[in-house]
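Protocol step 4 of 6: structure prediction from sequence.
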Amino acid sequence: MASLVAGIVVLWGCARSAPPRPGEADYPYRPVPFTSVRLTDMFWAPRIETNRTVTVPYCFRKCEETGRIDNFAKAGGLMEGDFVGLRYNDSDVFKVIQGAAYSLAIHPDPELDAYLDGLIAKIAAAQEPDGYLYTARTISRGDDMKRLGPERWSNLITSHELYNVGHLYEAAVAHYRATGKRTLLDVAVKNADLIARTFGPHGIRDVPGHEEIEIGLVKLYRVTGNPAYLQTAKFFIDERGNPDRHTMEHPKRGRWYMQDHLPVKQQTEAVGHAVRAGYLYAGVADVAALTGEPGYLEALERIWESVVGRRMYLTGGVGAHRSGERFGKDYELPNETAYAETCAAIANALWQHRMFLLTGEAKYIDVLERILYNGFLSGVSLSGDRFFYPNPLAADGKTKFNQGHATRAPWFRTSCCPVNVVRTMPSIPGYVYAVRDGELYVNLFVQGEARVELSGAPLVVRQRTRYPWDGDVEIEVDPGARRELTVLVRIPGWARNRPVPTNLYRYVGEAPGEPEVRVNGSPLDLDLDRGYVRIRREWAPGDRIGLRLPMPVRLVAAHEAVEADRGRLAIERGPLVYCVEGIDNGGRVDHIRVSRAARFSTEHRPELLGGVTVIRWDGHTAVPYYAWSNRGEGPMAVWLPEERPRRRPASAAP
């Protein structure tokens, strides 16, 4: 068993993280693959295990019960019947396969492996002879046909033909890397060859209405080395916003809704559907890294300022409007009607990580961390089988905001969010570390062990910490033998008195403590380089970095232009945003106020909500935002009215 695990890790590591060949462009900073990082903490490791043992089989079962898997069997002639569901339901199955493959890569499971073999056989049967794969059209009957268009590729704005297969490519690459089997990879390659032949300067000049295929094509390129896939991804990006392309506009919202209003290199702000936007920006980053073409990064940085500076929730969520699941205007961030879709948080996280890989700047990891611990994690219950689609920052406990539910739901007709959680959760260890030219970057603080190849030699890194409940982190660097190398440790923005790397949110008052860094007990100056402490020295086995991040309770204020948060404050501790729930506060939250002079106390409650640190003041209790609505329906609020001190009458002045 151990040799099997080791073989899988080697396969994945070589496929995902091999350095670029001489003269070949790529991300200058390379993530340490999640298969090389074993987490042993009490926060993420149990959640990843719940994802493997509960969420993966649960989502497969739901895909069976709702006809999503039967659609492949019907399209392949293995059973009779009409298409059932929505035109993008194929993608849900692909995303669960991707998550299952990730789990299989770190935890061999013969039963799951065999299940995937059977499912992939149905998918292969559904593929048409020339490689086309879209069960809604192949079956050609159902209640969603009007969105497909009369023939292939004729209504890309709403058909999701290309979106679906983008997720196929990601699933195929994940399955191949986890198992070494080409069964799904061959299906993906056959389809991608068709796409590459069909679209381009001398073929169909159109773009997908819902971006995602760009990411999938790049992953397929990395595995196969076929330049046509990278070229096609670049074509879809560069063709977007082409004024000479006479494409039908979105029937309700126009081309801006699908980020097709301007060429990507000319775009300056995030607009339209938030999930589509995040996938586009992640795909642009991939193509920028692999082509080195100027203009992409400049556009992404402008758009990033738009999102993180004016259009992002404190939780890292994006998407202000439920109508269209879209961004609002600058500083338009309503709380109770916030959409902040789980998929949008995931897309934002994918983009933020890629921005770090392009630049090496810690500010992108600051945002990534905020998303992971708040806007993403709130999307799945502690039990792993209940979900949020939108993630509002306030709720009255009665309004059915979650696709017909006032609390977490077991499934949705459009169930992109549950299956997106499935593939994201096991990938989190891959965000912890990165390398570049003999330098190791410690980005996230999670107890566990990583095996890293640095400058051609192995390196073992171990973390011991109770993060996010405690700010003490011990990082053991074991190079096997004495050698010189550089370790860069991120000092989070929240520990430097900056909740986000813009002025959209700010802490109230001065930071009550400074971070401390020690090497083998000797203190270091906090001379930061792009948000990191750079430690270059000759390392020996057993050397340790000690990091102390003070974790007082902090109050957060929003930019004055955010009308919904004016006169209100939010509560944070470490990387976590907190909220008040009715169940802890007498059934109500509308009476709760918070003062800048409030005296807060904290208590870790291992028996509550899977183990959380609660915050108390003036008889009120707050819990981490990610954990809300795990105890039934009820009101909740993140932003609380500020209780200001009363002014004494002028006559009472001395």
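Step 5 (inspection) to follow. The first strand starts at residue 30 and ends at 31.
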